[in-house]
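Here is a complete protein record:
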Amino acid sequence: MLNILIVEDEQAIANLIYVSLSDEGYRCTCAFDGKQGAHLIEQENYDLILLDIMLPEIDGYELLESIKPLGTPVIFITAKGTVNDRIKGLKLGADDYLVKPFQIGELSARVEAVLRRYGKSEKQLVFADVSINTDSRQVTKDGLIVDLTVKEFDLLVELVRNKNVALYRDRLYEKVWGGEFAGETRTLDSHIQRLRKKLGWENRIKTVFRIGYRLED
């Protein structure tokens, strides 16, 4: 699991980012000022740092200077949105620059893009007796290839990345099919049934009453 540090003094924004990226399968940690961020960076290795600029104690520009020797990618997330601010941030060594307010989907896409650029995207997922290669989109069970449709594959990845978490039907549908959930569950339910059968996971993919599904470890 990839490790992301969020250095953001506005707790509501930090919590939104934390919840959203955790739902995507990342391990997230929050720091609410630059000094706390610097301490965490000294204590642990991170795959990516999301960094506000206007921070108490130590600002984002200064903190970036101490991050650069580590080679850890950094995305600035800030209200400082002028062209000159963007130029300064990128010239100082940030890998990307996102201006508040932003759509959480855009943040997720930028996180994926930067991690991919650094060769840190999770290409191989393993759960129980099943291995998933997200590049080749190949699934094997006990070493044997399992033939899945596009949507079955996407649904499996979503379940594995959120194992032991009860996932709401509307969230699953919107993540896998990309459209707004209108309340009709037949499509999702039939895909779940086929996944259970193809993987022999009848006892692993649990139905959660009035909520959706949970993949149990």
Q: What stands out?
A: The chain has a mean pLDDT of 90. The radius of gyration is 19 Å. Helices lie at 11-23, 34-43, 60-67, 83-92, 104-117, 150-161, 169-177, 186-199. The longest helix spans residues 104-117.
